[in-house]
UniProtKB/TrEMBL annotation:
Listed InterPro entries: ATPase_NBD, ROK, WH-like_DNA-bd_sf, WH_DNA-bd_sf
Function (record text): Transcriptional repressor of xylose-utilizing enzymes.
Keywords per UniProt: Carbohydrate metabolism, Xylose metabolism
Keyword Iron appears in the UniProt entry: no
GO biological process, one term: D-xylose metabolic process
Family named by the database record: Belongs to the ROK (NagC/XylR) family.
Species per Swiss-Prot/TrEMBL record: Pseudoflavonifractor capillosus ATCC 29799
Transmembrane segments: none
The protein's name in its UniProt record: ROK family protein
Length: 376
């Protein structure tokens, strides 16, 4: 493998970004940073001093300890670096200004009708950028999260089912032309997967976004699993029954055709996942049977993925995260004994509450990842 030569400036910038990546998620002392980064205490001190002179990092009040010298916690100063996050789905659009600490400074919402007009969404994002950017802050760009499939490298939304108005839309180009800012585009499930796993320190995980569709994001070895062309996993459009239902993507027997909440509830008396879970928890037979069916559908998809890519955590997000204490035992039971190589260790099941603020911060995080990533 050919290695790219590294010079002193490269190393300096890499180490600076490493320190900022660590401080993004929690306050740390110089000693903590040295231990977590593998850098020497002297190197960390030099980096911190420079960041303090630049007004990027600040020292906070020390936390009292029983003995010894109290370490001074460090944090990224709020509002120094900012990004706009735009989270687009079939329910509408959420957008806001977020700083490098992950603090949401301002947010706006657009209805599904407004989101069907690409020009209106672009104008709203441009207006937000002008009105809500804090004085003295540096705007790093715009992160857009949208339903897949996408051409992330080319900045285009391809052909997500139920999202026809946006098919082929060069959303990155449109926003850059309007705002002058660089723009990054990511799949909704991948956006949430990276945001959650970075905050929790997870390196091998699958996130399933189950609501009006079934989206997926896979983190392997601490990185988003994607092809060289930027294509990410579409577990919702893998087949669990090759003679099955016709899916909105044109395929047959896709996981989404069965496990997406509207598809699960079609033809029943239930209108929402919450209503279904509430009835199942009360012992209503048909509701309990539907939950069992959903566990069977999702376990088939999870099994296929985990037997291909070794993940130790499965995160459920979207509508399906509500009432998870009722649904969890059913899914765990379905997964038992089906995962090759995991007879002695179960896959951990977790939920992510993808509320509006989380969606916006996750979209903006795409900008911060680019800003703090090792140069190529």
């Amino acid at each position: 493998m050919k290695r790219t030569p590294r010079n002193a400036d490269y190393t300096k910038n890499y180490n600076r970004n490493l320190v900022l990546r660590l401080l993004r998620h929690r306050q740390m002392s110089r000693a903590d940073l040295a231990a977590a980064s593998g850098l020497t205490r002297a190197s960390v001190s030099l980096i911190v001093e420079e960041l303090q002179r630049q007004g990027v990092v600040e020292e906070l009040e020390p936390t009292a300890t029983k003995r010894g010298r109290t370490p001074l916690p460090l944090a990224i100063r709020g509002g120094v670096y900012c990004a706009v996050g735009v989270y687009l789905n079939r329910s509408g659009c959420q957008m806001g200004v977020v700083d490098l600490n992950g603090t949401l400074l301002e947010k706006r919402s657009l209805s599904p009708g407004a989101c069907s007009d690409t020009a209106a969404l672009v104008s709203a994002a441009a207006e937000l950028l002008v009105q809500a950017q804090p004085d003295g802050s540096k705007m790093l760009g715009i992160g857009v999260s949208a339903p897949g499939p996408l051409d992330s490298g080319g900045g285009r939304i391809l052909n997500p089912p139920g999202f026809a108005r946006w098919h082929g839309a060069p959303v990155c180009q449109m926003l850059t032309e309007k705002t002058g800012q660089p723009v990054w585009l990511e799949n909704n499930a991948c956006t949430l997967a990276q945001y959650y796993c970075e905050a929790k320190g997870l390196r091998d995980a699958l996130l399933l976004l189950v609501d009006s569709g079934v989206g997926s994001g896979v983190i392997s070895g601490g990185r988003l699993l994607q092809s060289g062309g930027g294509f990410t996993s579409e577990l919702g459009h893998t087949t669990i029954d090759f003679n099955g239902r016709l899916c909105s993507c044109g395929g047959r027997g896709c996981l989404e055709a069965y496990a997406a909440v509207p598809n699960l509830l079609r033809g029943t008396a239930y209108t929402s996942w919450r209503q279904l879970v509430e009835n199942a928890a009360q012992g209503v037979p048909d509701a309990a049977e539907l939950l069992e069916q959903e566990a069977a559908y999702l376990s088939a998809g999870i099994t296929n993925l985990v037997n291909l890519v070794d993940v130790d955590t499965v995160i459920l997000a979207g509508d399906i995260s509500w009432g998870f204490e009722t649904f969890r035992p059913l899914l765990e039971k379905r997964l038992q004994g089906r995962l090759i190589g995991r007879t002695d260790r179960a896959v951990a099941l977790e939920t992510m509450s993808a509320e509006t603020d989380t969606q916006i911060c996750a979209a903006a995080a795409a900008v911060f990842r680019n800003f703090l990533t090792e140069p190529v």
